[in-house]
Each structure stands twice: as structure tokens, then as C-alpha cells.
Input
Amino acid sequence: MSAAHEPVQTFTPRDFHRQAHDALGNPQIRANFRRAMDGLMAKRRDVFSDWDLETLRELGANIRLRALARLPDLLERLEANCQANGIQVHWAENGDEACRIIREICQRHEAKAVIKGKSMVSEEMHLNAHLEAAGIEALESDLGEYLVQLNEQTPSHIIMPAIHLNTDEISEIMHDKTGIERTRDVDTMTAAARAQLRERFMGADVGISGVNFAVAETGTLCLVENEGNGRMTTAVPPVHIAVTGIEKVVEHLRDVPPLYALLTRSATGQHVTTYFNMISSPRKEGEHDGPKEVHLVLVDSGRSNIYQDDELLDTLRCIRCGACMNHCPVYTRVGGHTYGTTYPGPIGSILMPHMMGLEQTKDLPTASSLCGACGEVCPVKIPIPDLLVRLRRESVGEGRGNVPGAGVKRTKKEASAWKGFQWLATHPGVWRSGTAMVGKLQALMPAKLGAWTEYRTAPKPAKTSLHALVKRHQAERAGGEERS
Amino acid sequence: MSARDNILKRLRERADGPLTAPQSDFGVVTGRGWGQAERLARFERWITSVHGEVVHTSRDAWTSTLAEVLEAKGIRRLALGREHPVAAEARAALAERGVALIDADRDIEAWQREQFHDTEAGLTSTRGAIAETGSLWLWPTPDEPRLLSLVPPIHIAVLDADTIEDTFFDVIERHGWADDMPTNALLVSGPSKTADIEQTLAYGVHGPRELVVLVRNAEERV
Amino acid sequence: MTPVKLYPPKPEKVYLFGTCLIDLFYPQAGLDAIRLLEREGIDVLFPQDQTCCGQPAYTSGYHDEARAVASAQLDLFPEPWPIVVPSGSCGGMMRIHYPQLFAGTERKAQADEVAGRIFELTEFLVHVCHLRLEDHGAPEKIAMHTSCSARREMGLTETGPALLARLDQVELVEQARAAECCGFGGTFAVRHPEVSAAMVEDKTQAIEATGATRFVTSDCGCLMNIAGRFEHQKRGVEGEHIASYLWRRTS
Output
């Protein structure tokens, strides 16, 4: 029964349907996600209750828009200020380049062991595997990431990586992989992980972290966390490498407080996290701790392509809080792994097609009922449902062709079905002969009606359409008025 | 062309044309207008809600309070700085108290294992605090380095009540952070914690299990 | 976010856009909507050339087709009367997405003008008609499912329940996770049938747990989905469009 004993499973967005089927049939997964998402939604609601949330979201969106509007200038300013502070800045076109840059820094320091703070960008580029292949051990230190890594999995949520596992499963994993006694006591397991990881922090040659906000004005890297592993990662090893997407830059230091307020409240319903860690330079002359070298790796990986398009641009506002997945009824049912992508849920479905292409990810933009819950809670007001629709357009070849793999989902059968729909709906005379139309629609989509009726009784087409009923009703009323 | 030049070129030659940057109104994160008593009350309410411990004391008697806290928690080995008045006064007061005072103003390479294994608590000053979120702000120095507030299992922070301000935004603006950022600036709001095991809160996962804030009020409080 | 809408005084006439689902499967709901409006002294114009708002094509990404269909609807409302739509989903399409769909085309101004006249039925009954209801029905406990489009796209979380509250003998009970999607989502239900089925199963369980034996909704997509699931499982909870329910209990 334990996840620890199951063979390592790999997930890909191509297999969304099969993976969703498996997840839906797994009561443990269903229960773990439902409970977690219910809790997170309730906490978010409570923590925003005494705030002017709409004004704060407006400001958050506005700050991110301003940063994007000035993105190239701000990146240059960030670079100049980081360099002036002694932080070395590197640029990578894609994940492979970023991996290579990071590996080379590690190799220059003859690093054998790397300790990692949580970084979704490093997940995005499969950094751990790259380093391992070069003989460098990369160990995750965020407790959730550590557990997921022990279990040879990937995170199922961008903020809470091990949310798919329950206490019993985690106990089993820690027993199997680290040799501790089985226990249901969370404090005992946490203390064990603390002891295991403290040794590793001391032995690490390099610390690798992500970045929540990079401040152009001051050359400052901000990290948001509760555990302290982020501070450890960025202060204990002699070298710190921060890796981030090029969109994470903000213009001013004063832009940070509103985004931080939105991030913690939206992510976990916390009014603040335990630590807000702002790093502006390596260890200076006379200082006694902190890394002697700090590097910042700026990764593009499709972001500058998203940047070209006025509508798609909104995708880059994201501050990675995960509220969209916490509130997504689809994510809640199928869990994060089902998506088969680094970023699951609504944000993943609008972001991953740019990174992996629509050929791989074509089932993601449709994996939404467009209920709007994601857009409603997004702290920077990304119109996620509209972007899902935009990617559907791109997949069927009716967009602007600005997404890799555009048009891949277009089939003659479906395109002609919609042409047929258009023809009917623009020929009201034909439309009015309702039964004929129903017959035609059924002929166009036989398999799909089958899927509907597997779980529901099909609605019966009415004998008399509204058009006909209204005609009769109007005649009766006219007749009634004449008689009276 | 380098990756840098390529990326910047693509961003500069944006297909849909240049973007207009909107103005921002920061009203929602400032202007709380709380009085000092309200600030202290809010600070205390928030930081205790996340498992921080607040001990009230006075400017004059705070080192006795510190000694009591150390005794109550059985702390025999305390790491601290030397030059900051907080460290200096603590050293003077604790000299005869049987608490081993560990110098924090040393290169970490010289005492890393000692810090990780044999230090029971770290004492730091703070620059101030934030009422709205119950956060301390620290700018670590050579005298009180970064790891002093992180590695020992208990962090004791000394805060003057009159340095609590309303919001994070206010702190950044009033103290001109943007003009002079230190190597590391920190907000600390409670002890280290995680909820990664089935949403169950556990403290002290990597950093301190306990955070004790000694709030120095101008007048002695009972 | 829908901006605050300023509601007009009660007009002499309105247009009714019946929606294709009502036309095909629930025509009675459309007729009941007309009767409710007529009882308020409003003449209801029903353009016979109306078909579908175009939303199925729109959400499927077929925007050229959706635009062609929407374009045909734009011409149906030449006089400046409000356009009442007994569906949050189609109402949202016409109010929110028509302006997007026609952006950069020569019909943008017309799309904006039509969008500005769109009212969802319960919204119109509450905010424009200030509807009063005299309940003739037996005491009953019912649940309501407000569609996601009505709730989030049109900002109409309260109008359905407000109408039900005017029925003296009716007790509205709220199901757990009332704001959660029922899993219809138009083509979502056919593209991801298993996920959709899991969602509607949860929704039916939540409604059943309230003890209500009837639920109402202002959207026929949700009705088809939730009632279809109840019927499939033979669970004895019936669904009804809110227009029919209001008319039935007050006529």
C-alpha cells in the first residue's frame, strides 16, 4: 500500500488522460489532495478577510506589469547592481545552458556535494539529474522536496511538494530510505530530517537556491520560506548559486512588500512566512559567515517568446504562489503528478505549452472546466481562463501561431464539425427545425456523447423547441387579448 | 551573440511593440496610523500566533530577564556578539552566571561544528519590528553574523518596543533600505517551521525550534 | 472582475435570448422566463432567428466559427431594449467575451453595445424588476447550484438565492463547497469525461447531503450535468431551472 514500495513512476503530459484515470481511481491520492486543498482554501479565505484584497491584487498586478514593461532595462540594471555588489551574473537561453553554467561553477570548486533550497526553475531544467550525471550529488533540503527526492518522485505541488503523501506514507519512506523507526509522530520525523540534513549542510560545497523576487534597483535576491533551509543553503556553503527565470525581476525594493504580502497569503494562507531572506552580496571583507561567492543564473527557457505577445505576456506576471492549483477542481481531483509537468494545475497549463510545446501538452489547456476559480484567486490577476482558451485556439490552429506546436490538435473531423456548427447556427431556418439539428450534432460527435452517457443520463431533446413554444405562446396571448 | 545579448535583443524587439509601464499606488500597504501601544499589541499578537514567545522587560532590567529565560530553558551555552550594546550588556551581566558565552564574531570556518552541535542558543539584537505581520528585522553584522539567528536551536532576540513600525513597506521607506542594502537583510517571524508532512505544523525543522523576543519597554512592565 | 453595473429602471420591453440548450432540451424554462417577465408588465421580444451565442466554439478555440455565429446574433437586437438571458454561461459569453471576440473588427462597437445590454435572468428579476413573489407551493427544502459563469464571470452569486428567499415556503439549504464547479464546462465534459464525472459525483453527493430532494440552477449546462448524474444513479433528487421553479410556485 505504501508509495515507497511502488515502482518509480514517470509522468508525462502526453499521458494526461491515463494518469488522470489512475489518480481518480486512487482513493489515497483523492483523499490527500481533497483534504489539503480544502485546508488551503479555508486558510487563504481567513487570512485575507481583513484586507482590501481587490486593491492589493490590483497593486500586485500593476507592479508585475510595470516590471514586465521595463523588463530588458530592469534585467540590465539588476545585472549591473548585482555585479557592483559582487554577485556574478550569468544568462542562459534554456535549461540545458543553465545546467551547464551551474555544473561548471560546481566543477571549478571541485564540488562533490550540492545542497539545494527549493527552486522550481531547477526542477524545470532537471538540474539534479544533470549534476548527478557529472558525479555531483544534489540533495534537496526543503523537507517536502527531501521526502519527494527520497521517494524518487517529483513535486506534486509548487509550494508543497509532498502534498500527495500522507503521514503513513512518509513514515514508510523515511524508514526505508533513512533507516529511522516507523512513526506517526510528525515532530519525530521532522527532527530526524533536521539531524540528517544538518550534516549535509555542513558538508556541502555549493548551495543552490531559487529566487522569489530579484530587485533591480538594489541587486537584491529575495527568498521566501518557513523552514530556514533557504537561509542555510544560501549562508552555510562557501558558494551560493541562485537560479531564476528572467521574469522574476521587480523594479524597486518598495515593490517587494505588496508582492510578499500577496504571495504568502495566497500560497498557504499565512499572514507572513517565518523568514524573508534578502541577499545583496557575497561575504564582505570582515564578515564572518555567508558564501564567499554568489552567482545569479538568469534563465529564459521560452519566457522571452511568451513576452512577444500582448495576451500571452500576462503569463509572466506569475509569482508562483500555487493558489490557482489550490482552488482548481481539476487539480484537486487528479493531483499534481497527473499533469506530468514541472508546474501542474492552471498555471502549468498556461505555461508548460510554451516550454514543452503543444504537441506534448495539448491535453493540458482543455483540462479545465473554465470555472474561473483560478483567475478569481490569482494574486496578480492573471486571466488564466482566457489564457487557457487562447492556448486552445493555438492548439487548433486558430491563434496567432505564437506557441510552439501551434495547430497540432487540429483534425479535419473536428474542424469540419465546428464548421457544421457554424453553418447551422447561422442558418436560423434550418436551426429551427430542431430535431434535424440534434440528429446532425449526434452524427458529428458520436464517441463524445458516449462518454457523457457513461456517467450521466443524456438529456432528452424536447419535442417542441423554445422557438415553437414562444410562437404558440405569443399567438395565445394575442388571441387572449383580442377576446378580452 | 551571447545568450545575454540574444535574450535582451528579443525582449527589446518585442513583436507586439513596446509596453507602457503603469504607475503604482502603494496606499494599501502603508498609512495604518497605529499608535505605539497598538503596534506592540499587534506585533505580539501576530508573533505569538506563529509560536514566537514574547517576554516583556525594561531597558534597565532586561539582562536579568535574559538570565531568567536562560535558566528557565536550561541554556548553558549561549552564542553572542561582542560590540553591539545588547551583546556587551549581556556579556557583562552573564559573566558570573555559569553560562558559557560563545563568541559569534569569528569566521564560521573556525567553529562551524561547534556552532551546529554545541551551541544551545543565539542572542541577537534587532533593528526593529513590523506590527502588521509580527516580524523582526535584522541586518546581520560582523559582530552578529547571519547564522547566529539560524543555527542554534533557540534564538533570543532583543527588541525595543519603540522600534516597532506599522508595515514592511514603512520600514523599507523610512529607513531608506534601497540606498544601502546590507549583505543580508532578514525578516524573522517566529521559529523555523514546516507543514510538509500532511499539513501538520512542526517547529525547528532546520532553524531554531524556539524564538524568544525580549521586548524592552521604556518603563518597566509587570 | 465585473465592474459595478448601474441598473436601469424597469423597461417596457425586453429581448429574450433563449440559449441553445434551453431551445433544445429545456424549452419550458425559456417559456417560464418569458411568463415571469410578462407578469411584471414587460413585453418580451423573442427574435425567431436566434440560435446559439457561439460559446461552444469559443471555448474550444474555434474563434472564427464562434465569431460568425456571434455575428449573426448581434443583428437580432436592433432596438435599445435590455437583452435577458436565462443562463449565466451564455450571458457571460455575450457580456464579457463578445467584446473580446470582436476586438479589432469592424463590429467591435456593436458587440460592446450589445454586451452592455446583456442581463442574466435572475440578475434582471432582482435588480431591474425588483420582483416580488407570492409562494403558492408546499413547504420545501431545496438546494441551489449557481453556475461558475454566473458566480465568477458575471458576479451574480446572490441573485438566485435572493429570489428563492422571496418564496415563503421554501427553505434554501447550502451544500458543502457550493462555489465549486459541477464539472460541466461545456466541451470539458466530453474531452475529460472521467474528471468531469468525478466532479459531478462530488456535487451530487454534496447536494444530497443537504437533505434537499430538489435543486435549482440558472444554467441548463449545470442542470443537464447534475440532474443527469442523479438520474443515472437513480438517486431521486430532481433538478429544475430556477425560472420554471419560480413560475411553478407562484402561478
The domain at 13-127 of chain C is CATH 3.40.50 (Rossmann fold). DSSP finds 13 helices and eight strands in chain C.
